[in-house]
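quick one, 278 residues, struct below
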Amino acid sequence: MKTDQELKELVRQKYSEIALQDKETNASSCCGSGCCSTEVYNIMSDDYTKMEGYNADADLGLGCGLPTEFAQIRPGDTVIDLGSGAGNDCFIARSQTGPTGKVIGIDFTEAMIQKARANADKMGYNNVEFRQGDIEKMPVVASVADVVVSNCVLNLVPNKKNVIKEIARVLKPGGHFSISDVVLVGELHDSLRNVAEMYAGCISGAIQKEEYLNLIKEAGFESITVQKEKVITIPDDILNNYLSSAEVKEFKGSGVGIYSVTVFGRKPSCCDPGTGCC
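---
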């Protein structure tokens, strides 16, 4: 079994490659994993093109939702985007914070950071910055963000509990997050979970929906809400790369579900003194 660090390096390598691919290649696969399908153009992501602040150069087609649509971002807010990629969600968030706000994108892939900074420079944004770092140990001081967003990223992180704790640390008291991610209902077949490209492609790194929500609850967040949920249907020509015909049939009849969910949670305005919030 691979260690957490080995899994992180696998994802880093894959997303360094993805940074150099075009949107069509990424969007027609499992979050850019390369297991391209002839049956669908897009498996995971939603359409950003009509959202204010959208920039085509920053859209790599890697998301599984529209967290900025549900994030209740206000003018002047400080927003942190986890796994910011080429900057798509950051630029959407910037249109909502306005020039008085600030947006910080965090990504641990150097190629993505370079691409995002180039996009920000082209648009002349001086209140959007990109920092290279691990979202399990964010390069951000505590209690700085009004809002945290993320799009199809936590499922790629081996230790999701650490990331959720970090979200709590960087949010101001009373701040909130809106995160789109991939979760499971029922057990995914081992053949899918153990294939490296599927791990980097969003599905094998996903955990059970109830476990995901419980991690958020255990971190002390309030008002936890599933803002949006949709089933993700994996086409046969992708399943056939990893499963036999009999296994595909069994998978389809098993009731196992792969879902994209957008989840909201709020950090209490005043926590137990032992947590350091008050």
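The chain is about 30% helix and 20% strand.
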